[in-house]
Each structure stands twice: as structure tokens, then as C-alpha cells.
Specification:
single chain, about 280 residues, alpha/beta, five-stranded mixed beta sheet, two-stranded antiparallel sheet, 10 helices, elongated
């Protein structure tokens, strides 16, 4: 401690002071009062998109710094709206509810036997070089460890389309399209004809029951609904924006991606062999 500070305290004590802290200054009266805070809140609630600059234009008697102080007292935060991929209308919700009640009614009447009638399928792209998923690339590291990078799969990586049909017990059909081919209504019709022959050969007993087909509402699948009707198969209605009604994406194909991760294939035949082995 400096000697000047010691002499200053001695002088203060001689003058009758009992505290070494500075006395409170009267200072300038604060312009932030309850009326101003209430006026700010009314303005913000009328227009929630106000910026600090535009808000200060409505209160010319105070500075920009005071505007920020009042905004802080109100505990308002300017946040963006949450992004969602699709707008789920009331009509969509009613369709979901009606279809769910149909599933529940059918299951309560027939029990688990109703699940034996259900077949489903979907397409997936299988690359020649499959990278690790984000979950598989997780590692234990310290906060000070260098950050690793993970590249997305490039668009030039060769890949082909694989179509899988399955039921609750077994994979019924694995069909491979030639490299570079795309899914359209004609391809879907040919694949469905193959699948019908497989069902007829492997599961003859199912033809004494009702075969129930779960197909999502993508454009190629929607175009071939009449073909499924000619098979005398029942189709589960797939309401719009219902990804949870696509079990292939959330069960079978997810295991395929984990199985193929970090593998590199030389040619088309090797890819077909390893995919068939995975489903077997």
C-alpha cells in the first residue's frame, strides 16, 4: 500500500470518518423508471420484429445505451423461428389419426397374426466407398485435443440403386439396378412383378391370407398403386409427411449403412455380394 493512501486514511479518521470507502455521490437521476420500462414492453409486444435502432427512434429523449439497458431489464431475446421441413396442417393430422385408429382396430381384432400379412420395401443408394457415419466417428478426446474433420461423400462417388422387400421375419427380395439407372414408374413395375413371383414361390401360404403392402407416397410408388391393386393386395394408406410409417428407412436400411461403413468395393459384383451377405 502506498504511503499517500495511508496518510489519506489518517486524515479521514481525524475528520471523524469510520469507513475507508468513498461516500456515495448524488450523481444524476436515472431516466430508467417503471413508466419507461412499461412503455418499452408495450412497443415490443405490438411489433416483435423491432430492432434496437428502430426502437430508439420512438424514444428520442434517451440514448441508445439506455435502450439496451431497458431491453435487458425486460429479459427479451430476439430469436429466430424454428425451421421445420414441412407444414403439418390440421387435415394431415386428421388423416394420421384416422389411419392410426385403423391400425389399432385391425391389431386388436386379429392380434399379432395381422403382422404376418404385412410386407414392405424401399430403395437405397449403395456407394462403392462407404464413409463412417457421424455416430461411428465419435471418439473420446480432451477439450484441448485438435478437432478432426470428416468429409461428406462426394457426388462423383460411384453408386447404384438397391431395392429390398421384406416382412417381419425374412428379407424376401434384393434387386439391383444397373449402375447409373434411376427409379421411375417403369422400373418399379418390373420390380413389383419380380416381388410378386417371389411371394408366390416362397410364401404360398400368404395367398390364403390378405397380403398387406406398406409403400410410402413417393412419386414412383404412387404411380404403381394400380399394379398392386391388380395383385389383389391391400395397401396401407400412407398420409403425407409420414416418415415414421416407412420401417425400411428406420430399421433395415439403417443396419445396412452401419454394415457397409468404412468399406471400399472394387466393382459392381462385389457390392452386390456384400449387400446380399448383409441381408442374409
Amino acid at each position: 500500500m502506498s504511503s499517500s493512501m495511508v496518510w489519506r486514511w489518517v486524515r479521514l479518521f481525524n475528520e471523524g470518518h469510520k469507513n475507508v470507502c468513498d461516500d456515495l455521490w448524488s450523481g444524476r437521476l436515472s431516466v430508467v423508471n417503471e413508466d419507461l420500462v412499461r412503455a418499452f414492453e408495450e412497443k415490443i409486444r405490438k411489433n416483435v420484429r423491432f430492432s434496437i435502432t428502430s426502437l430508439s427512434l420512438h424514444f428520442l429523449q434517451i440514448s441508445m445505451a439506455v435502450v439496451k439497458i431497458v431491453s435487458g431489464k425486460l429479459k427479451f431475446l430476439k430469436l429466430c423461428a424454428q425451421w421445420v421441413p414441412k407444414f403439418f396442417t390440421e387435415e394431415h393430422k386428421l388423416k394420421q389419426q384416422a389411419r392410426t385408429l385403423d391400425y389399432q382396430t385391425q391389431f386388436s381384432e386379429e392380434g399379432r397374426n395381422s403382422l404376418s400379412h404385412v410386407v414392405t420395401g424401399n430403395e437405397t443408394l449403395v456407394p462403392h466407398e462407404a464413409p463412417k457415419s457421424k455416430q461411428q466417428s465419435m471418439e473420446w478426446r480432451h477439450t484441448s485435443s485438435p478437432t478432426k474433420t470428416k468429409f461428406k461423400q462426394t457426388t462423383s462417388t460411384p453408386k447404384f440403386t438397391c431395392t429390398i422387400f421384406w416382412d417381419r421375419t425374412v428379407v424376401l427380395l434384393v434387386d439391383f439396378l444397373p449402375q447409373g439407372s434411376t427409379i421411375n414408374a417403369g422400373v418399379c413395375c418390373n420390380t413389383l412383378q419380380k416381388f410378386r413371383r417371389v411371394v408366390h414361390n416362397k410364401l404360398r401360404v400368404m395367398f390364403s391370407w390378405d397380403v398387406v403392402m406398406i409403400h410410402d407416397n413417393t412419386r414412383p410408388h404412387t404411380a404403381v398403386q394400380n399394379v398392386i391393386t391388380t395383385f389383389c393386395w391391400e395397401q396401407f394408406d400412407h398420409p403425407p409427411y409420414s416418415p415414421h410409417l416407412a420401417p425400411s428407412d428406420f430399421h433395415l436400411l439403417q443396419h445396412l449403412k452401419f454394415f457397409l461403413a468404412c468399406q471400399w468395393f472394387h466393382d459392381y459384383s462385389e457390392v452386390k455380394e456384400i449387400v446380399t451377405t448383409c441381408f442374409a
